[in-house]
Amino acid sequence: MSGAATGLGVPAMGAAVMSPRTRMLLHGRVVPTLLRLAWPNTLVMLAQASVGLIETWWVSHLGTDALAGMALVFPGFMMMQMLSGGAVGGGIASAVARALGAGRQEDADALVLHALVINGVLGLGFTALLLAFGPALYALLGGEGGSLQAALQYSDVVFGGAVLVWLSNAFASVLRGTGAMLLPSVSIVIGVAVLVPLSPLLIHGYGPVPALGIAGGGWAVVIGTGLSTAILGWAVLSGRSIARLRWARLRWALFRDILGVGAVASVSTLQTTLTIALTTAVVARAGGPDAVAGYGTGTRLEYLLIPLVFGLGAPLVALVGTNIGAGQGARALRIALTGGALAFLVTEAVGLAAAAWPEAWLGLFGHDPRMLETGAAYLRVVGPAYGFFGLGLSLYFASQGAGKLGWPLLAGLIRLVIAVGGGWLALHLTGSLAWVFAALAAGLVAYGVVLAAVIRGGAWFR
């Protein structure tokens, strides 16, 4: 395998001209290096995920319609964050890491400009699409009456500021591609620190500040994201990054370096979000808005796993990408499998705890009996399969670093077919949501097992 692996990159540069960080990525001990890079990312991704939890808690005080409306918007907003940070963002980090690993500093610098162009255009596109088609989309997902109105009020604000999310993740991905994990983490923590008091203030009002309802939560997200974007932009534009912004002619080859990974990764992200969105529609058909509120609150924990695994995933992109660029394929594979094992242990622990004590999670957001019943049923069945989701997702990030996303795409499709197709069939045959949730769990197991088996078998190097 090592001979095939070396064909994926060209040993790039002598140790004398490497930055210390690049040298660490190429030669540091695997587990200590991975944990050193992962801990700030993991903490900050948990902080970023807490944004949704904080808002959900405050919005739950507005009633079940508001909670259901947020559940309708949340998959789309998470999809945007996953696309900008994990999919296209992973393409940016992978391209920068491979350029630095191969000693192509000029290309690494030029990639910064290309990343900003791509993410800026996509951010504006998201705003246009959701403002135009949001009402039809949320109605299709089961929104009606008060829940549909709440969804639109929240959606118009958060997607109106979509370009800030995309630019923030462009800057963060450039930094992560160089192995710099702390600064993106600090910037997001600052944004969250601003959001924590701002969210209840704008939702419920205080003194001269009027109560904006669920739209106030959206404004808090936009303001916090804007602050993070400003900090990350300053870091990259002021030259404090190994890859620096330089004005240069736009080149299709560099767009291809990013989009060759990012576009395929985006399909995988769409698969994940489509799975949640379509099963939300199935749940709405079976139980109505109260059941949607319970299912949406339960799946919010599943979405929390994504930023948790991203804490490991971002270092995996940088480590695997740099080693592939330098022709060290065997080391890249060892890094990927090690990261997958760590992700499995962490996410499985979360899933087992959620299955054992579902009310501890659901009770944070409401006490409606139907909401609690549906959410608890979901967590008891699907929670024990969370480890396989973490395993598959970490290997998806590692595959971004390798620039090999065919198998993650196929594994995601298998999950989608099992979860949505199996869930719909189970509901049609039994009328029971428990069997729908069983199909979701089976899809997660298949996702992790298939991806781990093929990557361990050398699929990157064939």
TrEMBL record:
The chain crosses the membrane at residues 33-54, 66-99, 111-137, 157-175, 182-203, 209-237, 258-284, 304-324, 336-357, 377-398, 405-427, 433-455. The keyword Transmembrane applies. Keywords: Cell membrane, Membrane, Transmembrane, Transmembrane helix, Transport. It is a multi-pass membrane protein. It comes from the Bacteria. It is found in: Cell inner membrane. It holds the Pfam family MatE. This is MATE family efflux transporter. It comes from Belnapia arida.
